[in-house]
Amino acid sequence: MSEKSYGQELCEKLFYTSKNAWEVLKEEEKPFVFDLAEKYKHFLNCAKTEREAVEYFVERAKEKGYIEFNNNIQKLKPGDKVYFVNNNKSILLAHIGKKPLREGFNLIGSHIDSPRLDLKPKPLYESNELALLKTHYYGGIKKYHWVNVPLSIHGVVVKSDGSKVKITIGEDENDPVFYITDLLVHLSSEQLQKKASEVIPAENLNVLIGSMPFNDEKVKEKVKLNILKILNDEYGITEEDFISADIEIVPAAKARDVGLDRSLIGAYGQDDRACSFLAAEGIFSIDEIPEKTAIVYLVDKEEIGSVGISSAEASFFDISVAKLLKALGEYESSLDLAVSFENSAAISGDVAAALDPTYEGAFDKLNSTLIGHGVTIEKYTGVRGKYSGSEATAEYVGKIRNFLNSNNICWQTGLLGKVDQGGGGTIAMFIARKMINVIDSGVPVLSMHSTFEITSKVDVYMTYKFYSEFLKRFD
């Protein structure tokens, strides 16, 4: 074999290229990669809404010895594990470390909401002897993705007496599924001339829910009445109860392996339940008392700008950390909370847009992530001119790079497509507002915001490896 030239040696020394994680994966790590993927797929099937995700994480936390923090908890000590729940739609997990909380904590924040269809407050109507549900889409979707696919109904209804009814229909193989119709191709000449954003108007995203009439000639809307009777018999609800309900329409498809080599995962809601699941598993993997307190914060409403009581913009995080400080005997004034934030480090866990070979023109190939090349770090996010984004400092990026390399974690860097092509943000900006150093990092995804997104099992593993090591020992 010929010796390397001086130029080749310089290339190895000076050039930056990411590596295919499968090619550098240790043989003893492979069983864990596939085992983690199965756990992740199970989670995706169990948690298709933010409420279901919180329920899942609460159960996992209890299994791992966490207790819910309440006002009866007066004292905490290193090694204690607690969780806080915000309106059943966001959750904070904390594993108390050896160092005082005023000296900072290691935080991973992510979101558990995904693009979907929400029912309107008065959704049920009858037309041409069919019963349908009117919806309002949530988050950034391509509306034509949602027609002609099996759908399921998830959510809660709060009745006038305050009691709560949980509804999940369409996930069990014996359940009925639901459906949004499309115009048949034989009559679509006018429709097919429209722009993709106009092919399916938002008001056409009406969910077919039934067609059988109630047997009473004196009733006008027989099909609607029959559907309401079924709902009343099964769940004890009336039409008025929809006004105080959180009902979401999501794809009924299960998470599946993709590809003959089973290297990929296809599922709805991987943006951003991927990073949320991996952050939670990262904190649950901590067996010994960490040096610094580890915190995982999983929030709602990121897909619509992080607004509302269960979002990253809400004060729930600040209140929870203040309560931790007080229970640790470290809170005397609001300055203690500010100092704790200033000494902390964070990851904003959110998925990245993987380079799609079919649509290369939308990407800057030099600054795009690749499926199979490990966890992504993004120095900045935002839209056109970096608006509505967050940018990590060079010093913090350098520290993160060193940490990744020191822990033999396959990583890559990238951005969300070409400048002016579009863009997007994460919850990083809300973490940065607290004076916490933060960087965006997560799993690369193909077909993001579709009804069936694609990730690589090895990227899922490398992201888990980064998150767990970061929570345990980043300093």
TrEMBL record:
Domain of life per record: Bacteria
Keyword presence, Protease: yes
Gene Ontology biological process terms in this record: proteolysis
SUPFAM superfamilies attached to this UniProt entry: Aminopeptidase/glucanase lid domain, Zn-dependent exopeptidases
InterPro entries linked to this entry: Peptidase_M18, Peptidase_M18_dom2
Gene3D superfamilies reported in the protein's UniProt record: Aminopeptidase i, Domain 2, Zn peptidases
Cofactor(s), names only, from the UniProt record: Zn(2+)
Any single GO CC term annotated in Swiss-Prot or TrEMBL for this entry: cytoplasm
Protein's UniProt keywords contain Hydrolase: yes
Pfam family, one: Peptidase_M18
GO molecular function, one term: zinc ion binding
Coiled coil regions in record: none
EC number: 3.4.11.-
The protein's enzyme class: hydrolase
Keyword line: Aminopeptidase, Hydrolase, Metal-binding, Metalloprotease, Protease, Zinc
NCBIfam families per UniProt: PRK02256.1
Entry similarity comment: Belongs to the peptidase M18 family.
Protein name per the record: M18 family aminopeptidase
Organism of this sequence: Caldicellulosiruptor obsidiansis (strain ATCC BAA-2073 / JCM 16842 / OB47)
